[in-house]
Amino acid sequence: MARLARRLIAVAAALGALAIVAEGTRAQTLVNLHVRAFQLSLDKPSVTVGEPFHLILHGHVDEGIDALDNVVLPNLAGLEDLGDERRCTRAKTGTDCVETLTLDANAPGDRDIGPATLSAIDATTGKPRNFDSNIVSVHVTGQPKVPAETPEPNPLTDLAWWAARSIAFLLLVAIALWALIWGLARRPHAVAPPPSAPPPPPAAAPVDGWETRMRELVAALEREPTRARAVAVRAALRERVGARDAETLADLVARNAANGHGATLAALSAVERAAFCEEARVVDAVREALPFLNR
Question: Structural domains in the chain?
């Protein structure tokens, strides 16, 4: 017990010494001042929410100084600081220092502001001292400010939407292919006509010309994934399969307009979505359709 008591006494002595050193260091940073005035005031006793008003801190000392240091401003909870201005003016009677804070309130109610604190060495006693200002009150009316809430992006939601779009697109392609196969299976087998003279081979120029135009349209769509480009590619594909104006994709599949060329109908089905989807999803729809158009 005696050893424990000695240790406690030693710790207390060390803490006391540290306190003395800290107080001495703090005293060395303070200025000797004759403080004659240190007070707060408001330019408006009553304001509405969001209306700027001014909190004015005025101090007068006998000494000639450039700035009033070691001032702790009051707690401004519930208020928004819009800026402050400081100035000190010397005269024969000493120095007047004024700090003006521009504030506005976030919610209605009565606000007590203060006190502010000035730490200095009181020149009349030669000892460090905290000079406290008065407390001022402001009456606030109006409606509370409502902070604008910006929804944070949710990666899981974006991923879910992307997965849903991809599944819907693949399902559409699968339905188109299934309809094509079903139509081919139900197509009646015509009796082979008697052999006749083979028809002259079709001219290759128009086909080559269409394929060249199609490659140019797809390349333009890849450079500029817009709805107009997608509509142009769709029109070329419908021209290829001889689609009439009133025929839908389902009509073309039902009558086997592609004559067994599944890739043509798959490309047409892929570009249909880019031509008619919402404007915000055109780029994604074009990106999903390009693999089918570049085959």
Answer: 30-141 (2.60.120.570), 167-183+206-293 (no CATH)
